[in-house]
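Reviewer has doubts. Consider these tokens.
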Amino acid sequence: MDINELKSVKKRLHKNDTKNQKMKKFVFRLFNQILLTTILFLGTLIVMKVNKDSKTFIYENVYNQNLQFASFSELYQKYLGNILPLGSINKKDTPVFQETLTYEEDNLYKDGGALKVGNQYMVPLLESGIVVFMGEKEGYGQTVIVQQVNGIDVWYGNVDPVNVKMYDYVEKGEMIGQTLTDQLYLVFQKEGKFLDYKEYIS
């Protein structure tokens, strides 16, 4: 065996060793996430069974309140990584789009505002969050609702959601879609109350 063949074998062995280490890290991380989720779930069940006051507290604050999935998702990713660990392996390339909202004029419209933008305007996300609704809303047309990490639900009306799917976590500045005309409808809602849209678009 000559020196070149020896180097080639050494490279292949090193490559295989690196792959094995990555796989071990992935399996260890996945195991830790499953273990932590199981412990939290069982702990909640035990507390509910033992203490009736805690059961009432959980029912009032989880079942009767608007659970903020976006905030939970951001905390989970910050401390435990991606909620779906396979996402880091099968990560697709995404086009770079980091923009801020621009418009010509705004007017009060129903529960929010109507912004005059260009035809097929590429709509940037105002704040990171999770897509919780996609469909028709009366008076707003095709609408995407994003539950932001700050607890505010934002309706993006008259938008074709070309870049997102239900339950996607989308970062601030990313494109969620294109307007169908030169109008973009924005509605801001928190805990069932509509907010003044002007505070969030300036």
